[in-house]
Amino acid sequence: MAHGHDTSFVQSLVDRAEPDTAWKRLSEDRAQNQEHNRLAFQVATKVLTYLSDQGRTKTWLANQMGVTPQHIGKILKGRQNMTLETIGKLAEATGLTLLEVPEGNAYTAPVFRATVFEGLVPDLRSIFGGTAVERDADCLEFAY
């Protein structure tokens, strides 16, 4: 025994220890779900801003949605994988638009967004054809 420690006991713990790989799995998961994480963060930010502006609490929101405050906490951290049902309940409770799906069942053609430089609008229209929709002073969208 050295300094009151049983070295064989410590060695047996070291021998049975497993490497901590949870951080690696978490990092890989975040990389694979980057778009989902961005959207979840946007929803969380929008709901948190609403709660703050309205002087409401997470407990109030939990009661409105029929879930626990702990569940709301996970959602508002922006890391909870939300179902359409959850997003619908959030929207209903807050009156916020959190998800938009274009009306109708027709396929929407891809849109090309182009920064417009003076004098290039006619060239862009001839290259891409289709309909150009001016979104703002610097941007046109071409459906093709």
What would a concise description of this structure say?
With 144 residues, this protein is mainly alpha-helical.
Structural description of this entry:
The protein has 144 residues and is mostly helical. The chain has 2 domains: 33-101, 434 Repressor (Amino-terminal Domain); 111-143, no CATH class. The chain is built from 7 helices and 3 strands. It has helices at 7-16, 22-32, 34-54, 58-65, 69-76, 84-94, 121-128, and strands at 111-115, 131-136, 139-143. A 3-stranded antiparallel beta sheet has the order 1-3-2, with no helix packed on it. The N and C termini lie far apart (79 Å). The mean pLDDT is 76.
Number of helix segments?
Answer: 7
- Beta strand %: 5-15%
- The level of helicity is 40-55%
- Radius of gyration (Å): 26 Å
What composes the largest sheet?
A: 3 strands, antiparallel
CATH topology of the largest domain: 434 Repressor (Amino-terminal Domain)
Name of the CATH class of the largest domain: Mainly Alpha
* Secondary-structure class: mainly alpha
What order do the helices and strands follow? Answer: HHHHHHEHEE
Write out the CATH superfamily name of the largest domain: lambda repressor-like DNA-binding domains
> How many discrete structural domains?
2
Report the principal-axis shape: flat
Set down the secondary structure blueprint.
Blueprint: H1 7-16, H2 22-32, H3 34-54, H4 58-65, H5 69-76, H6 84-94, E1 111-115, H7 121-128, E2 131-136, E3 139-143
Antiparallel strand pairs: 1-3, 2-3
